[in-house]
Design goal:
Two copies of one chain form a homodimer.
Chain A lengths: L2 H6 L1 H12 L7 H4 L5 H4 L1 E4 L2 E4 L7 H13 L2 H9 L26 E2 L2 E2 H20 L13 E5 L6 H11 L7 E5 L4 H10 L5 E6 L6 H16 L4 H4 E6 L13 E5 L12 H11 L1 H20 L6 H15 L4 E7 L6 H13 L17 E3 L11 H6 L5 E6 L10 E2 L2 E2 H18 L16 E6 L4 H22 L10 H19 L10 H12 L3
Parallel strand pairs in A: 5-6, 5-7, 7-8, 8-9, 10-11, 10-12, 12-15
Antiparallel strand pairs in A: 1-2, 2-15, 3-4, 13-14
Helix pairs in contact in A: 2-5, 6-18, 7-12, 8-12, 8-15, 8-18, 12-13, 13-18, 14-18, 15-18
Chain lengths: 540, 540
Amino acid sequence: MDQKIYNNHNACQNLKRLSQTIKNKTSHLKTLIQTKNRLKNFSMQLDGFFYDFSKQRVNDSILKELFLLARQTGAKKKFSQMVSGETVNVTENRPALHTAARDFSKDHILLNDLDVIFEINKVNQQIKNFTEKIHNKEIKSSAGKPFTDAVVIGIGGSYLGCEFVYTALKSSIKPIINLHFLSNVDIDNFGQIIKTIPPETCLWIIISKSFTTTETMANLNQVLLFLKDNNLDPANHLVKVTAKGSPGDDPLSSGLESFHMFDFIGGRYSVTSAVGGLPLSLAFGFDIFNFFLKGCHTMDLHALNTREENNIPLIAALMSIWNSNFLEYPAQAIIPYSSALSNLCPHVQQLYMESLGKGVSVTGEIINHRTGVIIFGEPGTNAQHSFFQFAHQGSSFPIEFIGVVKPIYNKGQAKSQGVYNHQELWANMIAQAKALAVGKDDEDKAKYFSGNRPSSTILINDLTPESIGMLLAFYEARIVYEGFILGINPFDQFGVELGKVLATNIRDQIKRKNEDTAYDFSSLDPSEKFYLDVLFKGSL
Amino acid sequence: MDQKIYNNHNACQNLKRLSQTIKNKTSHLKTLIQTKNRLKNFSMQLDGFFYDFSKQRVNDSILKELFLLARQTGAKKKFSQMVSGETVNVTENRPALHTAARDFSKDHILLNDLDVIFEINKVNQQIKNFTEKIHNKEIKSSAGKPFTDAVVIGIGGSYLGCEFVYTALKSSIKPIINLHFLSNVDIDNFGQIIKTIPPETCLWIIISKSFTTTETMANLNQVLLFLKDNNLDPANHLVKVTAKGSPGDDPLSSGLESFHMFDFIGGRYSVTSAVGGLPLSLAFGFDIFNFFLKGCHTMDLHALNTREENNIPLIAALMSIWNSNFLEYPAQAIIPYSSALSNLCPHVQQLYMESLGKGVSVTGEIINHRTGVIIFGEPGTNAQHSFFQFAHQGSSFPIEFIGVVKPIYNKGQAKSQGVYNHQELWANMIAQAKALAVGKDDEDKAKYFSGNRPSSTILINDLTPESIGMLLAFYEARIVYEGFILGINPFDQFGVELGKVLATNIRDQIKRKNEDTAYDFSSLDPSEKFYLDVLFKGSL
């Protein structure tokens, strides 16, 4: 909602009032969670995906108003517009069709003269053919050897989602091709990567929509030099994922093959496009990638077709808005009790904070209420030994726990204290959510726990591609819903532009000094000049 | 400061007033940073360590009051008491002597009948001898082979600091023994580790002060089973770092050797003890570890002996208190523009949030002002493509940038757009700090940047062990100073106890069900029962 709506909305006014009553002693979570049928009434299940919001600081009246807010802001209608290809990304004047990348229910989505479904299927077929040839050893390296490794060169949305899915799946599926990720322009990042890959059997996947992303192009240049030093031909070692017509899409330019990505899918929502499709199909085969897409589609259909009161991502969005805008929590932690999900948080951190960290409404007014919160997290139980002291006795923040019902590594386990490791993990996850909610009184105030600290718990059945797909699409849908209800555009990112402009200015100065050692940075401000002098001097 | 002091302290009252004036338009950072000699007056250098707070929302009057606050709370005196072994950890009735672990300036620190320096030197000598024998191949595996790998089994403070230092150093120093880290009780974490290590040449280092840490003991049990399955003798493959007299310190129990850790050094401050000393000496040799200790000592001496106005960690603590308690920022990001420092943030997150996330003053009163903030971060430029949209246009949070003057990988680099990768990295770091501070007006409000977003920048000369030591000790000293000034105990962690107690209860229930499949969890609350039923059923 924009500022006006936020101030005047029926539901908002009621929610503001309710946010005061929920602070009463009688509404402490330790009391709320004892309400009859609390878990049953405050949880939701979809196939192998379970969402428990019974330990959020909400009651029936608050839920009712939150659903009213969703209706009054037209959230479901906007979601439906998004899925059908309307121009929901208004500032950039384009649709946001990541759901089309895994839409098995439609034969066509027309965008002017373009059939989106046809284009996506074409790219997927190309990925299938190409990766099969790599796996069958029809396509080999310039040294005549079959490929064993691939380095994904991309930054932000061009790798975070793919890295999350790769890390999650490789715990149960042995990769045919091992993936590595080179994102940072830091030359030491490149230096570390080349220590770990076999040059002669390594494929390099360059991912950039515009094929002008500074970091990716800088790393590509390092790779070209590296291939040359190793007498390897880029024509046999480079693959590109880029927009049709970008500088990288030149059929005459070096490289094995180009795969298209599209303007109608934003970077951070692009895991299910060729951005994730090519590397994940290389790693596990196209069929596995397709199962992953099916999991996403299951969640998409649920998000699209289910009424507000039973719609899991929509409810999660409402919990998030309740916590950030009414209870004024500034952050949320994501704590998967699963090592395989260790890269989920960095992905969601980007997806969420880049989508919702906005200062302006979709109609162009500056807004003063909170849009999104800080997302951070580490896997449990690790996090318990890291920042859970703060979670229990410092400033409060909501937590999302994630549990996996079936572990992967299941053979020949030892028991400790009468339980298996996976059971120990769950004992801790269950205990933490409860401890945060109920707290504990103690005369020694150093041992006093205020409690009343909210959390949700998500369960997924296993770490199969379908379950990982549902988890990914859950976060995408939830974040989009949150943006729609807040009345902001979750698809643009103008906030990254100013830094780019200023960096270009400084880069130009460095370039001039590289060309002429006598150049003295006198046009810069004293601070910029100081830093560049240190950089060129090579020490403080 | 406790609540009373916080409300009545001279300096606090003045700072509260000043926090209003700094919100005036004329005090916008874009104006502040143009003050004459701003960088010179708001930065500080110690050898190869540089701290720039010129882009913090402070002026001379505020600084003056902050230094007064440091004096009125006796921060430096408390630091000095800490270093000399007084009982600064009052709730646990013991000293906090991590600085003694690298104190090359003292011959003795007496604690009742114990000479701390003598005990530490003895352990270090033992580490030196043992790791030399491993490196010289005098000590071999039970298969008669020299060791190539070591897995550190420990959680929280028993591995985060060591992992940070190992990751930082291995970018420039080739490890003699490769380290791996097994922290999580998640069985999939163990499953992933054993895929990557060679069983016959792998050493397992068990780190637990009490030798009862649930996760560490559960993982130890998995390892014992694994060694048995591989016909390897634990007597040749296990090493322990534990307290004198703990169950793991039994000379008759299996294992190559035990190294002592001490009650007077807390887990999260223990990197410079045997907790980091043994693994890091195995990886790089004891001499490298010793250089690292010397870097820490340089910073310790500076923190101890330098007057408030020139004391880098103390100033950093004051900036943090100003931002959290007076400007009310709820979080701080740490953004190293260096891949090698990618594990710094998880370490500082623990160090900071576990030390300062407290609800009670050192004198036992509940406090309502903020103690510490949420710490999160990713390396730059990655973070720019992840959550910097939020940093520029969402809710504001202070950022600490970290730059390394000399890169490691320096040979045969390609240029892009006229600059080397390392120069590109710096261009971005400099540009981001400036963009956050100055902002940019725009008629199109989607492209408007409010600016006035504070940051600090730290530079270290290089990634040598000395520089990494200075960086580690800087954060330790800064956090301890912040605790002393806030009047809380930065050394205890009672906030993790309640979760442990509740987990024990659930573990007991699981154990009973493991022993008797008919057991039905009827004594648990409906929510706990639901989760355990799902766990035992194996699916939702």
